[in-house]
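Dear support,

I submitted the protein below through the web form. The confirmation email said the job was done, but the results page showed an empty box. After a refresh the structure appeared. I'm attaching both so you can tell me whether what I see now is the final result or a partial one.
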Amino acid sequence: MGKILRLIATISGVLLIVAGLPLLFSPIPVGLVMIGLGIVLLAASSKHAQRFIRAERDQHPHLDEELDEIEHHIPRQARRPLEKTRP
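What the results page shows now:
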């Protein structure tokens, strides 16, 4: 992945996570989808993010379960970065 694409993916991932946080509490959990996509983008664009996500999944079993659930509902190409973050 080129430097510019990696930067765009990182910025997009952070924005999706930040925008998804307040939407977690809406009647339709759109925030969960946005946060999941943001995590996928961050994991795809940064080895540091992959290590951080892996450590968080290891420390928080509920987060790990949620990300496992998200993995089953996204296309295979988007699933690969999340698979790299499994504890």
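Response: this is the final, complete result; the empty box was a page-load delay. Residues 13 and 38 are 4 Å apart (CA to CA).
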